[in-house]
Amino acid sequence: MAETFSIKKVLIANRGEIAVRVIRACRELGGIRTVAVYSDADREALHVRYADEVYRIGPPAPRESYLNIERILDVARRSGADAIHPGYGFLSERADFAQACLDEGIVFIGPPPQAIAQMGDKLAARALMQAAGVPVVPGTEPGLNDDELIAAAEKIGYPLMVKAAAGGGGKGMRIVREPGQLKSALAAAHREAEAAFGDGTIYLEKLLEGARHIEFQILADMHGNTIHLGERECSIQRRHQKLFEESPSPFMDDELRQKMGEAAIRAAQAVNYVNAGTIEFLVDADRNYYFLEMNTRLQVEHPVTELVTGVDLVKEQIRIARGRRMGPTESGVRFKGWAVECRINAEDPYNNFLPSVGQVMVHVAPTGPGVRLDSGIYAGYEVTPYYDSLLAKLITWGDTRGEALLRMRRALAEYKIMGLKTNLPFHQKLIDSTRFLAGRYDTQFVEEFMHLQEETQDPHREEVAAILATLVEHQQRQQSTQIVARPKRDASNWKWIGRWERMHR
Fold first, then answer.
1. Could you tell me if 182 and 220 lie in one domain?
2. Cα atoms found within 13 Å of the Cα of residue 14, Cβ hemisphere only
3. Most CB within 10 Å of its CB: which of 152, 186, 223, 334?
4. What would the pLDDT profile of 468-491 be if each residue is shown by its tens digit?
5. Within a 10 A sphere around the Cβ of 66, how many other Cβ atoms?
6. DSSP of 363-432, one letter per residue?
7. Active site residue ranges
8. Local structure of residue 68 (DSSP, 8 states)
9. pTM
C-alpha cells in the first residue's frame, strides 16, 4: 500500500501557459501555495503575476535559468516547497532532475526517475516494447556506428528516418529517400542531437509513408492502477512539430482503439510507470500500428483529453504524487463529444514559419460556449527569442466533430493578437480545408497541401496596432451601454457544417 501525504507548496519549474495552468490547478485544489521561477526575460510574465511567491533564477538563456537544476532546487529550499511540477519541456524528462528532487526530499510530480531514463533512451525503449509485445517500427539496434548504419539501411529499405536516441521535438531527425542522402543526413543528425541534448547517438527507422500520428493518454497511480483516457490525433504537423490535435481521432474505429489502448497500457506497465504519460504510435494506411515513443510528462495537447473525459489531468498528477488513488479508476472514464486544439505560435506562416518576436499590442481572447484558451500572454507582453514560440492553446468542444470544428472556426475569427506575427492564418486555412474536414490527412498533410499565399504587408501595420490597443483600452473603461445593430443572418456556417457532415458519412 502506497503512503499518502500532503502537498502544501508546489514550485513550478517552467514558464508560460503551462506554468499558469499548474498554478490554477493548485488554487482549485485549495490549500496548495505556488512558487514561480523566472528568468530576466520573464520578469513580467503572466505566471510570475499569478503565483503566490516568485524567485529569479538567472539570465534568459535556458541553460542558465530553466535548465539549471541547482538554481531551481535552491529556490525550492529557500521557499520551503515540498513538491515540484516540471510542466513540459525544459527539465520535465530529465531523470537526473527527478532523482535530485527525491534526494532533497521533494516530491517530483511526475514518473519515477527510472521510468524517465528507460523511456528517454529511444533505443532501450524499443527493446522494452518488443519484450512487452508492443509492435515497433522496423529499425536498427543500439550501438551502431555510421558504417554499420549505412549497411543496415540497405536491409531496412528506403525511405527511412534518421533519429536522435535522446530527446524529442523533431530535433536530430532527417528523412532519407535514397542512399546518396544518407551520409550527410547522419552527420547533420549527429550535430543537431549533440547540440540539443548533449548526446549525438542516432539510429534508423523505416519511414512509414502516409502514416497517422496517434497517441494515448496514460494515467497510473502507486496502487497498481493503470488506465488510458483515449486517443489524440496529432497528424497535423510541420517539421515533426504538432500544430493541431483532436480527440477522438476521425481515423479510429472501436476495434483499433481497443487494441492500441491495451498496447499503451502494456507499454506503461513495462516500466512500472506512475503519473501521467503518453504512448505515441504511428498507424499506417492499413491500420497497422507501431510504437513511436513515450513522453514521460504532461503533453501540450492534454486539454483535448480533459474536455472529452472531464478528467483534470494536472489535478490527477498532484493526487497521484500525494500517493492517493486516481479519481478515474473509482468513477470510470466516460467519453463525451469531440475536442480540437490549435497551437497558437509566434511565427510567420507566410515566411516559412520563421519565429516572430515583439510586444503583444492587442490581445482579444475568444469566448463563448465550448471555448477554452490556455494562454501565457496579455496586451503589453514582450515575446522574446529565447524560448519556444508557443503563445497559447485554443481548444473547442462540441457534441460532434462538426460542432467542435465550427466553434473553432468562430473562435479563430474572434481571436486577435497584434504586434507580432502568429500562425492564426494557418489555422483558419486548415479549418476550411476540404481534405481536413473529411479527415483525410496524415503526417505529410501540411507540407503537401497547406501552402499560404504571401500576404500583402501593410506599411502602417504597427501604427494601426497601436491605435487599436488604445481603442481597446478606452472601450474597456466605458461604463455606458452600447446599442449594436444586428448583422444579417449568415447561412454560410450551416452550409459549411453540412458539407463536412456529408463528407463524413
1. no
2. 26
3. 186
4. 555 555 554 544 333 334 344 444
5. 26
6. EE---STTEEEEE---TTPEE-TTS--EEEEEEEEESSHHHHHHHHHHHHHH-EEESS--SHHHHHHHHT
7. 297
8. -
9. 0.84
